[in-house]
Each structure stands twice: as C-alpha cells, then as structure tokens.
Amino acid sequence: MRITFLVRNIWGIGGTIKTTLNTAEALADQGHEVTIASCVRHKNESDFAIDPRIRVLSLWDVRDPSEGGERLSVPDKISRRLPSFLDKDEVNNMGESSKLLDRRVKRFLRRLDTDVLVSTQVSLNLYVAQYGGPGCVTVAQEHLYLDKYKPPVRERILANYHRFDAVVTITETDAEHYRKAMPEHADLVECIPNAIPPNPNEAADLTEPVIMTAGRLTGMKGFDVLIEAFARIADRFPEWRVRIYGRGGDRAKLHRLIGERGLKDRIELMGPVAPLDAEWSRASIAAIPSRFEPFGLVIVEAMAAGLPVVCTAVKHGPIEIVENEVNGLLVKPKSPRVLAEALTRLMDDAELRRRLAGAGKATAVRYEPDRVVGRHVELFERLLAGRS
C-alpha cells in the first residue's frame, strides 16, 4: 500500500512525532510505501532519526532562506497574516496557523495520490474534513482524548469526524467515549495504541541511585510535582539524584524551583535527548507525574528499558498501561506527598524495583511496532477492500 501520514511538524520532538515515525518504519519493514507530509519545516535536522525509506516532504519551509527556507511571495506574505478558519476556536496552536497554511494543506490534499491518508492531530483532521479526502481511504488519528478538548473544538470534532473512513484512538477508554458521542457512526471508531520499539540496550541493573523522567517541560507533565516530592525525601536519600529530560516553556520555572528547594546538585534538567534508550538504562526508577496523559510513551519506554515506573493515576493511558502493584505504582495526581511515599518505597526496596520492572518489561512487549503495526495494516486493508 501507499500510506501517507500528515503531521504538523516532523522536525520537532514529542510523542505524536515519535510514534508516527515508529509506525512508519514498521510499515516500511513490511514493504509498504510510506510518506510523511509535514505542514512545516523549521530546522535543518530532525530531533528523531528518520528512516531513509520514508519519504518526507514539507508543505511550508519556514527556515530562513539562507538555510534553505522559502522566500514568500507578496500574496503569501499577506495570507501569512490572515487567520486560519481554525483560529476562531483556537484549534491549531501552531505559530504558523494562518490562511497561508490553510492554502498549503488544501493544495497538498487536492494533489495527493495515495491509498491511505492518516492525519495525526485534531487540526489536521479538521483540514481533511474541510477540504475532502483525495479519493483515498482517510483515517483520523487522535493522540489527545475527546474529553480534554474545549467545547467549541469538541463540537467541531463531532460535526466532522463522520466524514472519515475510520477514527483511531490510542486508548480503549477514549474509543468508548467517541462511540457514545457519535452513536450513528460508532462503527468508525477503532483503538490502536502507540508503538514503542524495544530498547536495544541491556536492561537497567537498578543499582544506580537515579530517578529519571522525560517529556515536554510544561505543566501537563507535572515535573514541578516531582521536584516537590523529591525535596521531601532528599535528605533521607543523599545518594539519589533526579534527571529530567526534555525542553519546553517551563524550563526557567523548574530551574528556579530546584534552586528554591536547595537541590541544584541533586536535580538536573538534561535538555532534549533522542533517543533516550541509553539514558533509561542509567537509572533505577522512572517517575511520570503527569497532570493528564493521553497515552504515556515514556511509561512504556521506561518499562522496555527494565525500569520500575511510578506514575499518576490519570486518564487515559496510565490507568490502561499500569496495573498498580503489579507492573508499576499508580499514585494520586498533583500530590507531592503521595509521590514521595511511592518513590521512598522503591528507593528503599531493591526487590520491589526488580519485581515491578520485570512485569513492566513484559507489558512493554505488547506495544512493540511489529505487534501494533499489524492492527494498522488490517484496518487499512479492510477499508480499502470496502471501497472496491
């Protein structure tokens, strides 16, 4: 099959980008012809390695012209300053959201020749719904969850998603919410989880006194809660450290909080690193203190590396991936005290770390691309067959 993924920016970093690349590579392994169309390109090199078998194209190169970016025509410069039809309800939070981006996506869709088009985010799904699929199978992927959207965006979703051949969620809970919200089109909804490759390194030996986490440095990820939790127990465990990987707008805020708690030598903001495989292997506990988490790639990544995980019991991903006291620990969200208690248990008990890590590693196998990709292929083939 010829399969095209439409993404906002393949040159950035984040869970949607990573799982799209994982899926695309697994599809290429099976001999499918895969293209990734990125709405924008903002830098020369991608954060994640892109398999050379995957064709990548950008609809708008926003780099400086001296670095290969576009020189916009006068009409395009005018369109760049005009609002997108998505801006009224703040559907698209990309800085490039504009009438110009609308036009670029519309032109791409009208010219696209593929068997399957997979759009990977709500603004892109609404683009496809607005401009129509190019005579191919269309699949709307959702990497957030329905209940998280503001009412105006939710209304747009429920008014437009029936135009797709399928709507794919990453958790069963969210799939059920879509089916209940779209009862006349419930048969369109499928659940296919994110794909996470196995960690190629030796499993962590769980002796390094390091707690690790990763993600975008925003309030969603709850790294401030982790800092506050560790501050409660740092004196009791003087040999332990915390490493936080990622970038984002909250870096200065987190750095300031670390300083206020007197933990500059104990908690490190490591910046973005991709891939994280080797870094997980240098830690002994993974902490995921998210305030909300549609899926939780880092949970499965940590499990695949052989780490015990402690994460907040937020919908939807964590409570579907983690079985409390079996393959990880679930804790009350936004509570430094409760998180500190769970971390203390793991820091005190090497046997508990090993037991949870072993069960977690078995859980991670369920999300390996060669298992998940078959569900995508089965769906695509069924939808194509239905059109013949």
Plain-language structure description:
The protein has 388 residues and is of the alpha/beta class. The chain folds into two domains: 2-195 and 368-387, Rossmann fold (3-Layer(aba) Sandwich); 210-367, 3-Layer(aba) Sandwich (Rossmann fold), CATH 3.40.50.2000. The protein has helices at 15-29, 74-80, 99-111, 122-131, 151-160, 172-181, 223-233, 251-260, 277-280, 297-304, 317-321, 336-348, 350-364, 369-387, and strands at 2-7, 33-38, 55-58, 116-119, 137-141, 166-169, 189-191, 210-214, 241-245, 267-271, 285-288, 309-312, 329-331. It has a seven-stranded parallel sheet with strand order 3-2-1-4-5-6-7, with helices on both faces. The chain has a six-stranded parallel sheet with strand order 10-9-8-11-12-13, with helices on both faces. Helix 10 (297-304) links the parallel strand 11 and strand 12 (309-312). The longest helix is centred in the C-terminal third of the chain and has 19 residues, at 369-387. The radius of gyration is 22 Å and the shape is globular. The model has no long low-confidence stretch (mean pLDDT 95).
